[in-house]
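$ fold --in a.seq
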Amino acid sequence: MIILIMNNLTFFSELNPLLLLKCYNKLMKQKIKHYIKEIIFFLLIMTIFSNILSLYKSQSLNDAPLTLTDVQLITGKPYILSHNKPLLIHFWATWCPTCKLEASNIEFLSHYFEVLTIAVDSKDDATVQKYLATKGYTFAVVNDPHNQLSSHFHVQAFPSTFIYDKHHNLVFSEVGYTSTLGLWMRMLWAGMK
């Protein structure tokens, strides 16, 4: 009987780590699946909420055709608006956390589309240029330290994006973060009008 007990203890001591490892792996897989589902659900709810909020906030934006004439960039060069391409006008601020997240999207788009950005409440031209240089951004920027342009467009929250077709009619307006793909698709749509 003692030999039988000893044999069983030996068996369980050899088997136990394997069983424990299998059980642990199974539990971890279940937990990971659960957390992934929770993250996806959270992202879905946040996306729906942010789109509803963006729609609400964008209702107060200026939806008239673009009347903006040529403007001066922070580099001192004039910016002449094209009359045969869609245009993205993006209002942002150096102090805005959401603007910082979206800036790389705007940088990417500026290499393929006509993009004019307007820095609001971001101090003087030198401060904005320093900010752009540290981040490696090269998109065209007009400084709006006294909120003249943002008032004209009725911008009250940042970032705010306006997309115009080649005839300078407003096609889209957004308040808040928009993905690169979302902006790209809107610019393509504006180009077809």
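$ fold --in b.seq
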Amino acid sequence: MKANLNDSIIWTKRGVSVIWDASELAKLGTMAKALSLRQWFRWKAEGWPEREDNFTGKDGRTIIVAGLDAAIDSMTPETATEWMQSKLLPAIREFQAEVANGGQEAALIFWMVNRRRFEHRRADDSVIWKSAPGYGGETIPISHCIWNGAQSDIARIVPTGYTDQEHGIGIFLQRVS
């Protein structure tokens, strides 16, 4: 994992992030514009037609998607991992290419509300998601599923003055390859 992003707002303008702090996310604009995961996939199925009402943020180029955590919790860890690698990751790449002009002109943010279910494993520099209760402590290699294993390029977003400096408000990657 790279050094923390402190005063940077780059994560609000480009790249792919997971944010767990709702109050920080709300600073981007109305949360009413957040798309459900189902709406985001429907937008993809339609070929990503230009829809300014889907965007929020100070520059109007941020897409917030809610519900990924609920979706992966509805599956076994193995099924969730396979689904994210075979369906979600290609959709993220397509979003970057079709909507974000290679990832540089729009930010994609997945809002996942429970920070305590994320863990940074320093041994292999990966980020895991702790599966829902009932799966015996199994984990999902979320940095491999969302960021295609680019964990050495992801950065923790920690605004200056934020009280939880260890965990921050989320995780950011400039571009998924």
